[in-house]
Known about the structure:
Helix content is 68%, strand content 0%. It has 84 residues and is mainly alpha-helical.
Amino acid sequence: MDNTNRLRRLQGRKQPKFTHNSEEVCSMKWEFINMTEQEEDLIFRMYRLVGDRWDLIARRVVGREAMEIERYWIMRNSDFFSQK
Protein backbone atom coordinates (compact mmCIF):
# COMPACT_ATOMS: atom_id res chain seq x y z
CA MET A 1 0.00 0.00 0.00
CA ASP A 2 2.82 2.37 0.85
CA ASN A 3 4.51 1.81 -2.52
CA THR A 4 1.27 2.59 -4.35
CA ASN A 5 0.96 5.97 -2.64
CA ARG A 6 4.59 6.77 -3.36
CA LEU A 7 4.16 5.86 -7.02
CA ARG A 8 1.12 8.14 -7.30
CA ARG A 9 3.05 11.03 -5.77
CA LEU A 10 5.96 10.54 -8.16
CA GLN A 11 3.65 10.37 -11.17
CA GLY A 12 1.89 13.56 -10.09
CA ARG A 13 5.09 15.61 -10.09
CA LYS A 14 5.74 17.82 -13.04
CA GLN A 15 8.87 17.00 -14.97
CA PRO A 16 11.13 19.86 -16.06
CA LYS A 17 10.73 20.67 -19.72
CA PHE A 18 13.79 21.29 -21.82
CA THR A 19 13.37 23.16 -25.06
CA HIS A 20 15.63 23.39 -28.05
CA ASN A 21 16.51 26.93 -27.00
CA SER A 22 18.00 25.82 -23.68
CA GLU A 23 20.24 23.32 -25.48
CA GLU A 24 21.24 25.92 -28.03
CA VAL A 25 22.23 28.44 -25.37
CA CYS A 26 24.45 25.87 -23.67
CA SER A 27 26.22 24.94 -26.90
CA MET A 28 26.69 28.55 -28.03
CA LYS A 29 27.76 29.82 -24.64
CA TRP A 30 31.51 29.59 -25.21
CA GLU A 31 31.69 30.71 -28.83
CA PHE A 32 33.44 34.02 -29.43
CA ILE A 33 31.07 36.77 -30.50
CA ASN A 34 32.28 39.26 -33.08
CA MET A 35 30.97 42.80 -32.75
CA THR A 36 31.72 45.79 -34.90
CA GLU A 37 33.35 48.82 -33.34
CA GLN A 38 30.07 50.73 -33.55
CA GLU A 39 28.20 47.91 -31.80
CA GLU A 40 30.82 47.75 -29.03
CA ASP A 41 30.64 51.50 -28.51
CA LEU A 42 26.85 51.45 -28.36
CA ILE A 43 26.82 48.53 -25.91
CA PHE A 44 29.29 50.24 -23.58
CA ARG A 45 27.39 53.54 -23.66
CA MET A 46 24.03 51.85 -23.12
CA TYR A 47 25.44 49.77 -20.27
CA ARG A 48 26.53 52.96 -18.51
CA LEU A 49 23.01 54.35 -18.89
CA VAL A 50 20.78 51.36 -18.10
CA GLY A 51 23.09 48.79 -16.50
CA ASP A 52 22.59 45.12 -17.27
CA ARG A 53 19.16 45.46 -18.83
CA TRP A 54 20.18 43.47 -21.88
CA ASP A 55 16.73 43.51 -23.48
CA LEU A 56 16.81 47.32 -23.65
CA ILE A 57 20.33 47.32 -25.06
CA ALA A 58 19.41 44.66 -27.65
CA ARG A 59 16.60 46.86 -28.97
CA ARG A 60 19.20 49.47 -29.92
CA VAL A 61 21.68 47.06 -31.51
CA VAL A 62 20.15 45.89 -34.78
CA GLY A 63 20.30 42.15 -35.40
CA ARG A 64 21.49 41.16 -31.93
CA GLU A 65 19.59 39.34 -29.20
CA ALA A 66 19.72 40.17 -25.51
CA MET A 67 21.35 36.85 -24.60
CA GLU A 68 24.02 37.34 -27.25
CA ILE A 69 24.87 40.82 -25.95
CA GLU A 70 24.99 39.57 -22.36
CA ARG A 71 27.37 36.73 -23.34
CA TYR A 72 29.52 39.22 -25.24
CA TRP A 73 29.65 41.52 -22.19
CA ILE A 74 30.60 38.69 -19.85
CA MET A 75 33.27 37.37 -22.21
CA ARG A 76 34.68 40.83 -22.80
CA ASN A 77 34.78 41.95 -19.16
CA SER A 78 35.48 38.71 -17.29
CA ASP A 79 38.96 37.97 -15.96
CA PHE A 80 38.52 34.30 -16.86
CA PHE A 81 38.05 35.01 -20.57
CA SER A 82 40.74 37.69 -20.77
CA GLN A 83 43.38 35.08 -19.88
CA LYS A 84 42.45 32.83 -22.82
